[in-house]
Design goal:
Structural class: alpha+beta
Strand content: 25-35%
Low-confidence stretches: 1-10, 77-83
Shape: globular
Mean pLDDT: 86
Distance between the termini: 17 Å
Radius of gyration: 19 Å
Length: about 325
């Protein structure tokens, strides 16, 4: 599953392996996750005749069948950013019951002892958004969290109905959370499940580790691309423990690139210009708490992660 490196000219062709678990998926849905772009963007690439498998052009509704897809990306500027709200957050979806926001690195979900930086709750309040009054005062509306050093999608409850339903959905594991991460080395096997309990690190209060008395923790992963020193991996979380992806990948001896807390090589991070772990929450999919219709929201890689990936791709 080693990617064939090419230099970008007018067009950049990428050869992407199709994980076995994705065979039969719609091309637009799978391609959006492979490239880290929105589903709309993936559908446009397919409509423009830029994606083929086994020499056959794919349409957005076609199903993946081959082992590899070739994607020819046009040389173009990225679309302008959506308007930001305080704290650098971007709103990807909003209705009367909930918000799905794109959290940048360096922003915490809510206030906590020892943290004086920006928070999701504070930024939304400053922009005039009213959140559910359920939950502790400092974390009203928050139904799940991302680490300060992790970017990507979070859903926040605006109504009490949404708060109760979303909390239950996370507890019952009916919300599909998809992450992309870059791990050190070549992850082997290239797809699988890590089922290992996570608890407090025995010698470091601020870290977590796989421990015999930890809480059940399950991570599903599949390698998307391999580079000389790292692997781009898609991850589906079945549980949502603190630092779960970082801990499980470290337990496999493949810490996330840039994750100094869990023993990543600082030399590689410096070469890629990273000051945090390469980890992005790029898709959330769940039943809407009000009407039950499926809602899927995607996020593209932020500039620092996209730049590091470009260096790896050569």
């Amino acid at each position: 599953m080693l990617r064939i490196p090419r230099r970008a000219a007018v067009n950049d062709t990428r050869y992407l392996p199709v994980p076995q678990a994705w065979e039969g998926e719609r091309a637009d849905a799978a391609l959006s996750r492979m490239l880290g772009v929105s589903r709309t963007r993936a559908a446009q690439l397919l409509a423009d005749g830029r994606v083929e498998s086994e020499g056959v052009l794919l349409g957005k509704s076609d199903r993946l069948t081959g082992a590899t897809v070739a994607v020819t990306l046009p040389d173009e500027r990225a679309p302008g950013p959506e308007p930001e709200i305080p704290g650098g957050l971007r709103i990807r979806h909003e209705d009367d019951d909930l918000l799905v926001i794109d959290k940048p690195v360096g922003v915490a979900a809510h206030a906590s002892p020892g943290w004086s930086g920006p928070t999701v709750v504070g930024a939304l309040a400053a922009s005039g958004h009213t959140l559910s009054a359920s939950g502790p005062p400092e974390r009203q509306g928050i139904v799940h969290r991302l680490d300060v050093g992790t970017s990507g999608l979070m859903v926040v409850a605006k109504s009490d109905v949404a708060y109760t339903a979303l909390k239950r959905a996370f507890k019952e594991r009916t919300i599909d959370k998809v992450y992309h991460a870059v791990a050190q080395g070549h992850v082997d096997p290239t797809d699988g499940t890590i089922d290992a309990p996570i608890g407090r690190h025995p010698s470091s209060d601020y870290k977590f580790a796989v421990t015999a008395d930890g809480r059940p923790s399950i991570t599903h992963y599949a390698v998307l691309e391999m580079f000389p020193a790292a692997s781009l991996v898609e991850i589906h979380l079945e549980t949502g423990r603190t630092h779960q992806i970082r801990v499980h990948m470290t337990a496999m001896r493949h810490p996330l690139v840039g994750d100094a807390t869990y023993g990543a090589d600082p030399t590689l991070a410096k070469r890629l210009g990273l000051t945090r772990q390469w980890l992005h929450a790029m898709e959330l999919s769940f039943a809407h708490p009000r009407h039950g219709e499926k809602l899927t929201v995607t996020s593209e890689y932020p500039p620092d992660l996209a730049s590091a990936l470009a260096v790896l791709r050569g």
